[in-house]
Automatic annotation (TrEMBL):
One of its GO terms (cellular component) is nucleoplasm. Its cofactor is Co(2+). Keywords: Nucleotide metabolism, Nucleus, RNA-binding. Its EC number is 3.6.1.64. One of its GO terms (biological process) is mRNA catabolic process. Gene3D superfamilies: Nucleoside Triphosphate Pyrophosphohydrolase (3.90.79.10). This is U8 snoRNA-decapping enzyme. GO terms for molecular function: 5'-(N(7)-methylguanosine 5'-triphospho)-[mRNA] hydrolase activity; IDP phosphatase activity; phosphodiesterase decapping endonuclease activity; snoRNA binding. Residues 32-184 form the Nudix hydrolase domain. It is found in: Nucleus, Nucleolus; Nucleus, Nucleoplasm. It catalyses: dIDP + H2O = dIMP + phosphate + H(+); IDP + H2O = IMP + phosphate + H(+); a 5'-end (N(7)-methyl 5'-triphosphoguanosine)-ribonucleoside in mRNA + H2O = N(7)-methyl-GDP + a 5'-end phospho-ribonucleoside in mRNA + 2 H(+). It comes from Channa striata (Snakehead murrel).
Amino acid sequence: MKLKPSSWSADFRRKKMASGQLSRAEALARSGCRHACHVMLYSSTKAQLFGRSPIKHIILMQMRFDGLLGFPGGIVDPSKETLEAGLTRELLEELGVAIPISVEDHVETYYAPASSPSPSQLILHFYVKKMEEEQIMELEKAAASTAVDHGEEVLGMVRVPLYTTKGGVGLPAFLSHSFIGNARSQLVQSLLRLNLVSSWELHKALTHSLRIHARSVEDLPALLVLTEVKRKPSRTNT
């Protein structure tokens, strides 16, 4: 049965609440919550992998201090600064460049997922900003040379490989890594929303990623056994 407009709106709001999604305004009206802002910075490029495979786009993520992949950003206090001003401040600390972020760059707001190491009252704000390739390259240089948090909170910037080679690596392998919170979901949804990767290519990459992840999980027990052997004291003849 087709829902009436009012019923559809109510149903849509229920689905948003169930998924943990809320508007920027709703989030700022919540009391007793912490806020974190992160941004996906990207650009177009004419570069080619090995001189023959188009890369098409550059997307920046970072290896965090905890070994997880995520987008640059951090905790923001809306009582002291706007979300966008706070995110710009965090980018200066992590990337060494004060990149102006505006409300127009805002994409979505969610409660932190239950699986996140952060408390459930943390609200996540996600932004997407397109830049020129030259700006992205300068940003990468600054992140490794002048950023205050480089080598501590941030272990390095990484580019997302948006291609899949004949051997099945590239984006599938990247997606099989460990991400903080809902960063992987944010990445995949952004790829679809901006049409940076076709839904068919992305589906294929994610399917292959599952197989890569399964092989990695199989390796862990063997490595654990290896460490157990090393931990056992060596027996000496008496």
